[in-house]
């Protein structure tokens, strides 16, 4: 039996608790949440104990592993303390929003020898799984592109901490990981631009749109785009598309439009692989956390680890640096 605690009892924390409910050889012992309002909602939704801090969760509930589902900027203290307590980790992407924090978490994970999964949930997305399986058939990658954007609803309503984040930090970890995973290439430089001002007029001083050109060691390239300014009147809150073009073919996916549309008061695309099907909760985040728990039980592979998570943070830091400087940023060579 593996026992798991969850730090952060918001939407994601509750999703993970539900996903692990009644899983074989897994017991969620409780959650930690400093907001009493959120904690009360989580108790009602999950029926689990909710304590006020990660320190209390570690001391009083003593889980074997901890899921860090706090806001992106609040990972370091929790993750370092959890690793130093000898607990295995699932950390939501990005590992951290600066390289200092990411490296501190990685150092704690390596010192303690605990296992760690970074939550790049699209590794469990059926479109991505099939795209990866098809990569051998398209030859060597020449170029790739990925767009992942949200409507205004996400930064203005869904995320209470959007002003402390940006499309680069909230969305691009997914697409950076996606392109690195599909192409298996090492990025060597980044050139990026961004615009801001529209969200600022709505009280959020952050980037509206970020575009990045990533160059790889073999001469191939990738373009990444993310925005937080899609109209709420559109057909969904997410626009997610990607393509890899190779010497012998290509792989293309449109995850925004999966063949199901609903027209009532508005036209919208609906993702069929989400929510519940029969007795089972489904979706990439669900399958990711279930695989994490299963890997702890059977000792199998967990998925992308802490060093890959640091690499993604490093690349997004380079994107921010390039936007600020107006220059191409060279990425450091891999550490031995």
From TrEMBL:
GO terms for molecular function: nucleotide binding. Residues 3-120 form the Gfo/Idh/MocA-like oxidoreductase N-terminal domain. Residues 134-251 form the GFO/IDH/MocA-like oxidoreductase domain. It comes from the Bacteria. SUPFAM superfamilies: Glyceraldehyde-3-phosphate dehydrogenase-like, C-terminal domain, NAD(P)-binding Rossmann-fold domains. This is Dehydrogenase. It comes from Kribbella pratensis. The lineage of its organism: Bacteria, Bacillati, Actinomycetota, Actinomycetes, Propionibacteriales.
């Amino acid at each position: 039996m593996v026992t798991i605690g969850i730090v952060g009892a918001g939407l994601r924390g509750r999703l993970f608790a539900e996903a692990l409910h009644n899983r074989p050889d897994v017991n969620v012992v409780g959650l930690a949440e400093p907001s009493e309002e959120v904690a009360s909602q989580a108790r009602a939704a999950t029926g689990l104990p909710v304590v006020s801090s990660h320190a209390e969760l570690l001391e009083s509930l003593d889980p074997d592993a901890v899921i860090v589902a706090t806001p992106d900027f609040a990972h370091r203290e929790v993750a370092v303390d959890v690793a130093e307590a000898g607990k295995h980790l699932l950390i939501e992407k990005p590992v951290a929003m600066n390289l200092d924090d990411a490296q501190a978490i990685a150092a704690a994970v390596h010192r303690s020898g605990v296992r760690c999964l970074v939550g790049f949930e699209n590794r469990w997305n059926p479109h991505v799984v099939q795209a990866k399986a098809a990569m051998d058939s398209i030859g060597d990658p020449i170029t790739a592109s990925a767009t992942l954007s949200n409507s205004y609803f996400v930064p203005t309503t869904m995320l209470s901490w959007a002003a402390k984040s940006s499309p680069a930090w909230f969305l691009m970890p997914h697409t950076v990981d996606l392109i690195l995973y599909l192409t298996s290439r090492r990025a060597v430089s980044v050139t990026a631009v961004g615009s801001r001002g529209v969200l600022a007029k709505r009280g959020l001083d952050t980037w509206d749109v970020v575009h990045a050109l990533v160059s790889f060691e073999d001469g191939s390239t990738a373009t990444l785009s993310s925005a937080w300014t899609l109209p709420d009147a559109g057909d969904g809150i997410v626009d997610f598309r990607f393509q890899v073009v190779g010497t012998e073919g290509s792989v293309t996916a449109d995850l925004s439009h999966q063949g199901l549309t609903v027209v009532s008061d508005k036209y919208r695309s609906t993702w069929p692989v989400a929510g519940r099907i029969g007795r089972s909760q489904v979706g990439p985040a669900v399958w990711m956390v279930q695989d994490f728990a299963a890997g702890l039980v059977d000792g199998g592979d967990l998925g992308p680890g802490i060093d890959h998570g640091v690499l993604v943070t490093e690349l997004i830091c380079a994107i921010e640096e390039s936007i600020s400087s107006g220059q191409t940023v060279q990425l450091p060579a891999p550490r031995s």
